[in-house]
Amino acid sequence: MDCRALAFRQLPHQPKLFLEYLDHFEKVKSFYVHPPAMPAVTRAARKLDYPGERRAEVTSILRKQKLPFFASRTSLSGRERKRCPIWTGLRKAPSRLFPGSR
């Protein structure tokens, strides 16, 4: 498989405001909190107030979203696998869900 990193400019249908953000930040800085540079993003991330309760709620929502798509065992911690009825069933009888697997 040939994999390449493409610049946003090379992708179709990119919003002009976003491309200006990347190329000419000074022109659009009134729309954004920080420039498109890692030090600025890191500073902004350190200022975030993200309490444990909110993290737990987001984790719960993401877990529910992953399960219908058969999240891989490696994407779920051991504790999550024990709480997950799908993985309990897979451990007991994977061949029923995936014929030909053993």
What does this structure look like?
There is one protein chain. This protein has helices at residues 16-23, 25-28, 38-46, 52-66, 78-83, 85-92, 94-97. The chain is mostly helical and 102 residues long. It has two domains: 14-46, no CATH class; 52-97, no CATH class. The longest helix has 15 residues, at 52-66. It is extended and about 45 Å long. It starts with 15 loop residues before the first helix and ends in a 5-residue tail after the last helix.
Summarize the structure.
The protein has 102 residues and is mainly alpha-helical. The protein has helices spanning 16-23, 25-28, 38-46, 52-66, 78-83, 85-92, 94-97. The chain has two domains: 14-46, no CATH class; 52-97, no CATH class.
Rounded to the nearest angstrom, the distance between the terminal CA atoms is 28 Å
Average pLDDT number: 78
Q: Uncertain regions: pLDDT < 50 for 5+ in a row?
A: 86-98
Proportion of strand residues: under 5%
Counting DSSP H or I runs of 4 or more residues, the number of helices is: 7
Class from secondary-structure proportions: mainly alpha
Sheet with the most strands? Answer: none
> What is the β-strand count?
0
List the helices and strands and how they pair.
Layout: H1 16-23, H2 25-28, H3 38-46, H4 52-66, H5 78-83, H6 85-92, H7 94-97
Provide the descriptors you would attach to this structure in a database record.
7 helices, 0% strand, single chain, mainly alpha, 2 domains
